[in-house]
Design goal:
alpha+beta, Alpha-Beta Plaits, 4 domains, 11 strands, 59% helix, 7% strand
């Protein structure tokens, strides 16, 4: 479960004319990523579709709102060029026949908007208690007036005439303006630059303003009747030209042109290959067989040069936490997927820092409310449950600590224990990360190298953790040092190399050169040789290289141990935030008591909890993410895997092209 699985390679041979059917069926599975075997691009016949598809996009921009819904695409498509020509001809025929209807519908839409604005403005004008003298004569005050929708303009309308502001029921603001025609042209230019509108007084306005609603309803009914007539004609022409199926064919061609970037074809056949997340192959086989395409599917061994995308296999409850792993990239083939661990650790870290039963319940409720629209909101459910758990541990309910007894302690009463517990938990988490690094080394066949370079450091770290509690911890740390040095000596003797690390490799040649210089100096007549016995000069560079390799191994061991110590101390912030949360809760309760036991105290308590939820929950979430990514993941994860990018669904599933 923790090891990412490679996607499965598939190949399909199909009739060339059926390739669009097959691609659409594969896209519907959401389990296919296409990849050509030899780096080829799209055939010339598909590349030649660009001008026709560009024309389709132009028609869509001008007339798309008047098109009927696309029906099912052709089940027996022709070649891409002929399919495009036939479908585009249907769109062109419909567009030429319906050009006048489209213009009329656009004009009717403008008239309907103007009608709605004038009715709303008149309603607001009548509802205002204070009236400007010039606007007190009923309809006569409106005859010759203009309705101004300023848009983004900041104009002083008094410069153009007598103006009055109107606030509509939905909060928008309009202006009624009485102005001479000489100034209207200047105002129109200013409003056009700010996307505002200037509407003349409508002819249907009754005099006096009696029965405006009835007149407006009659105008609306007339507009609806004319609109229905034009739309009925559009539908009739669409049925005659086969527009719905033509649109489906064009959308499918456009989807293939946008989504498929490599396709190998011959005179009669097409070859499609790629990866699938369907391990059994049943979904792909079903899609191919139900597509209607003449095709043969098989699952051969992938090409030697191909790099398979990797798939994470986690239980449903842990999948929302894959976002942590993917922040580093997809785990490599020989790296452990930490998602199940994070699904347990991240909520515990959050809950420890934000322990409160009431506040946690609100987070859970928010998670359930938002999870349909935002799947990542499921993280809030786990975090809220952990917060409720630690609220029980601390005895805190909406910052109040007198309602229930704590299961463990009250943070402000025993701060050292609150700080110490995360250090122990952090050490366990770091050891787990080191163990996962060893697991990855085993998967990649590098276990012996891991035992030589990393195992001794783990023993030293574990010994230092135990040393404050028992003297045997120091002996265990010493065993780790001996392990590291012994492994380095064995490695040097077996491999015959003069270094155990890149640093040792860089230093060893210099050491050999120094030894050679010393030997040459020994051959000098002015150099006095030792008289204690013969020395084999050829062993001096090897001994020097071994000494430097051991020194490098010790230095690397010291560096890693210090890094682990710093990483361990970073978990003290978990306890610090738990204390900060408890302190803020205490402050809220104190302020509520000062405000009294009535409504004032209740308002302070509610406001304090809201502030804690908004600010502290966000800060605690950031700290949880930081500890997981930079303290835990850096022990074993590089994120070098390839992401599985499935073919996007066709327009028949998304409802758009």
């Amino acid at each position: 479960m923790m090891r990412p699985a490679p996607a499965r390679w598939f190949e399909v041979l199909c009739a060339r004319d059926d390739v669009s059917l097959l691609l659409e069926a594969l896209g519907k599975t959401a389990a296919v990523e296409l990849e050509a075997t030899d780096g080829i691009g799209m055939p010339a016949e598909w590349a030649a579709l660009s001008p026709g598809l560009a024309e389709f996009h132009g028609w869509q921009a001008r007339c798309g709102e008047f098109w009927p819904p696309a029906s099912a695409a052709s089940t027996c498509p022709d070649t891409p060029q002929r399919t495009l020509q036939r479908a585009l001809a249907a769109v062109q025929s419909w567009g030429r026949s319906c050009e006048a209807d489209i213009a009329a519908l656009q004009q009717l839409a403008r008239e309907r908007r103007e009608l709605t604005l004038w009715l709303a403005a008149i309603q607001a004008w009548q509802a205002q208690a204070t009236q400007t003298p010039v606007l007190t004569e009923g309809a006569s005050a409106l005859i010759g007036s203009w309705l101004v929708e300023p848009g983004a303009a900041t104009l002083t309308l008094d410069e153009y005439g007598l103006a009055r502001e109107l606030e509509l029921a939905d909060g928008r603001k309009l202006w009624l303006l009485l102005a001479d025609h000489g100034r209207i042209s200047t105002l129109k230019a200013a409003l056009a630059a700010a996307h505002g509108t200037l509407l003349p007084c409508p002819r249907w306005l009754p005099q006096p303003l009696v029965g405006v609603d009835a007149v407006g309803a009659a105008q609306q009914a007339a507009l609806d009747t004319r609109t229905l007539q034009h739309r009925s004609h559009l539908q009739a022409v669409a049925a005659q030209t086969g527009l719905a199926q033509a649109l489906a064919d064009l959308m499918r061609l456009d989807w293939i042109a946008r989504s498929v970037h490599a396709l190998r074809t011959s005179a009669l056949l097409a070859f499609i290959s790629g990866w699938t997340s369907d391990a059994s192959g049943a979904a792909i086989e079903g899609a191919v067989s139900s597509s209607g395409a003449r095709a043969l599917l098989h699952f051969p061994t992938p090409p030697a040069q191909a790099t398979p995308p990797l798939l994470l296999s986690n239980p449903r409850w842990a999948r929302p936490f894959e976002i942590f792993s993917r922040a580093f990239g997809v785990p490599g083939r020989n790296e452990a997927d930490p998602t199940p661990v994070v699904a347990l650790v991240a909520p515990l870290l959050f809950g420890y820092m934000f322990g409160d039963i009431g506040q946690g319940a609100l987070i859970v409720a928010a998670g359930f409310w938002l999870q349909r629209r935002y799947p990542l909101a499921r993280l809030a459910i786990s975090a809220g449950l952990a917060s409720m758990l630690f609220g029980w541990v601390y005895g805190s309910v909406f910052a109040m600590e007198h309602l229930i007894q704590p299961l463990w302690l009250r943070p402000l009463q025993q701060p050292l224990a609150v700080l110490a517990a995360p250090l122990a938990g952090g050490a366990v988490l770091l050891l787990l990360g080191l163990a996962l690094n060893g697991l990855g080394a085993w998967w990649s066949g590098k276990l012996s190298e891991w035992l030589r370079r990393d195992a001794g450091g783990i023993v030293v770290y574990l010994g230092l953790l135990l040393s404050p509690f028992h003297r045997a911890g120091l002996w265990l740390a010493a065993c780790g040092v001996v392990w590291t040095l012994t492994a380095e000596i064995v490695h040097q003797s077996v491999s015959g190399r003069s270094s155990a690390s890149p640093r040792g490799a860089a230093i060893a040649p210099a050491a050999a050169g120094t030894a050679e210089s010393a030997q040459n100096a020994g051959n000098s007549p002015n150099h006095r040789r030792p008289t204690s016995g013969p020395v084999d000069a050829s062993t001096q560079p090897a001994r020097a290289g071994l000494a430097i390799a051991l020194a490098a191994a010790l230095g690397e061991l010291l560096e890693r141990t210090l890094q682990l110590a710093v990483n361990t101390l970073s978990f003290a912030r978990v306890g610090a935030f738990a204390l900060a949360h408890a302190g803020l809760s205490s402050a809220v309760i104190a302020l509520a008591q000062i405000a009294g036991h009535g409504l004032g105290g209740l308002l302070v308590l509610i406001l304090g909890n809201v502030v804690m939820l908004v600010l502290e929950a966000m800060v605690v979430s950031i700290q949880t993410t930081r500890l997981v990514l930079f303290e835990f993941f850096t022990r074993f994860l590089t994120g070098a895997g390839r992401v599985f990018a499935p073919l996007p669904p066709p327009p028949s599933m998304t409802g758009r092209s």
